[in-house]
Amino acid sequence: MATIRTRSRGSEMLLHLTAYLTILVALILTLFPVYWIAVNSFKYDIDIFAVPPEWLPRNPTLKHYHEAFVQRPFLRYALNSLLVAVGTTIISVGFGTMAGYALARFSYPWQWRKQISFWILSTRMMPPIVSIIPLYLFFNSFDMLNTKSALIIAYTAFNLPFATWMMKSYFQDLPVELEEAAIVDGDTQWGAFLHVALPLARPGLAATAIFCLIISWNEFLLSLIITLTEQSQTLPIGIAGRVTQYKTYWGEISAAGFMACVPIVIFAFIVQKHLVRGLSLGAVKG
Amino acid sequence: MLRPDKGMPAASPRPGGVLEHWTERHLRYLMLAPTMIVLLALTIFPSFYMFYAAVHRISPNPDLPWEFVGSGNFARLLTDAQFHVALRNTAVFTIVAVTFEFLLGLGLALLLDRFIRRLTFLKTVLMIPMMLPPIAVAITWKIIYEPQFGVLNEIMFRLGLPLQAWAGDVNLAMFSIIVADVWQWTPFIFLLMLAGLASLPIEPYEAAALDGASSWRQFWDLTLPFLKPVIAIAVLLRVMDALRLFDLVFILTGGGPADRTKVLSLYIYQVAYRFADPGYAAAISLFVLFVTIVLSTWFMKRMRLAE
Question: ipTM for the complex?
Answer without folding.
Answer: 0.89
